[in-house]
Amino acid sequence: xxxxxxxxxxxxxxxxxxxxxxxxxxxxxxxxxxxxxxxxxxxxxxxxxxxxxxxxxxxxxxxxxxxxxxxxxxxxxxxxxxxxxxxxxxxxxxxxxxxxxxxxxxxxxxxxxxxxxxxxxxxxxxxxxxxxxxxxxxxxxxxxxxxxxxxxxxxxxxxxxxxxxxxxx
Length: 169
What we know:
Layout: H1 2-23, E1 27-28, E2 31-32, H2 35-45, H3 49-64, H4 73-91, H5 103-123, H6 136-162
């Protein structure tokens, strides 16, 4: 696992950079697509539990250092998504090779639908009520659609990077 940690960490930092420089400025229906949540989810669906949790923590913390959201909240949501996806990935539910082609995108779409709700709901515990001002339903739908479209390429990238370590899982 140590050999694969470096390329996965670098890929995670590149994804955070893409999130901050491209996706944070690019809005669909006024909503930012959160690929920093999709990346750990894809790692988890690939069955890479430890790496998905690592990616969630790194992506969330580095994103939160540049965003005006409560520090650590993005990381918490990403960790929840990564852990749930890794449980499914370990059981082979989100496996790209043996499951139907639509299983991984459907799981990712469900996660993309729930993630903004968890994010905004968790902001209540940080006493940050400014996250409630935009359309939560629009954020849920846009992220679900984006996660559906991007899930398989992200999971393929996760599997490809995991092969640098010499083992598949």
